Amino acid sequence: MVDIGPGTVAQLLRLCNPSELDAVVISHMHTDHFLDLVTMRYSFPWKDEANPKLRVYLPPGATGQMETVARGAGFPDYFARSFAFIEHDGAAALEIGDLRFEPTPTVHFVPTWGFRVTSRGPEENGRAIAYSADSAPTPTLDTLADRADLFICEAANRTLADDAPPPERRGHLLPTEAGDVAQRGRVGRMVLTHLPVDSNGGMWAVSQAASTFEGPVEVADTLKAWEV
Fold first, then answer.
1. Whether residue 82 is found in the same domain as residue 108
2. Three-state DSSP class for residue 58
3. 38-79 pLDDT, tens per residue?
4. Across residues 174-188, what is the average pLDDT?
5. What mean pLDDT is predicted for residues 174-191?
6. Domain extent at residue 16
7. b vs e for 188-212, b when ≥16 Cβ sit within 10 Å of the residue's Cβ?
8. In angstroms, rounded to a whole number, what is the distance separating the alpha carbons of residues 41 and 160?
9. What letter would DSSP give residue 77?
10. What is the value of pTM for the model shown?
11. Which of 27, 128, 140, 163 is 20–30 Å from 109 (CA)?
12. Where among 33, 67, 87 does a domain terminate?
């Protein structure tokens, strides 16, 4: 699993027990991307130590922040019996099961990494999923998305007024900018995520992204699956 914002565990439990996961990978330390680790802890035995513990890959330097979250949850060792926190170094690929997760730094308000996910071993087929995480426009997104079969890309801004004002650096994309990345990268399909809440299912964002990307564009939806 990549990122685990509020509400994720409730949906995950409709599919499997969290103990069946190989790992959780966190793109950055904003609560809308990691806070349901607090909820997930309650799906593991409370007194007994999990065997094995669920691996949670964190950005560099983030373990201390999770210790603060644990104290906020009421117990300094809140996560200790269930999760094994592992900080990635922001460069080396993570080998998890039959998948390889290659981190790519993006431009956001805190240190953030997108991930390019490919299969490895006997199942290696050259196909790739690219996940932008949160990001403003940056050349590293082109590297991340290059010829990906599926590009899961944020599009949090309706207009530039939604982003940080100059001279602060931006932290998010417009749908048209997401489409530009997908078009330059010749991706097979783009799925938009991290959209503002609205009443029309994000079709405004699909329309805008389609003005710059010639391939298929959809909006991420709860429990919807795409085959790669």
1. no
2. strand
3. 999 999 998 899 999 999 999 999 999 999 999 999 999 999
4. 98
5. 98
6. 1-87
7. bbbbbbbbeeeeeebeebbebbbeb
8. 38
9. T
10. 0.96
11. 128
12. 87
**Which residue shows structure tokens 């949160």?**
134
Q: What is the pLDDT confidence band of residue 197, given thresholds at 50, 70 and 90? A: confident
Domain count, the chain: 2
The answer to whether the beta carbons of residues 205 and 176 sit under 8 Å apart is no
Say which amino acid occupies 79: F
Residue whose tokens read 């039959």 = 98
Neighbours of 51 (CB within 10 A): 7
Closest CA to 135 of 178, 87, 187, 196: 178
Q: What share of the chain is helix, strand, coil (3-state, %, to 5)?
A: 25, 20, 50
User: For 29-40, what is each residue's pLDDT tens digit?
Assistant: 999 999 999 999
- Residue among 178, 185, 168 at smallest CA distance from 210: 178
**CA 103 to chain CA centroid, nearest Å:** 11
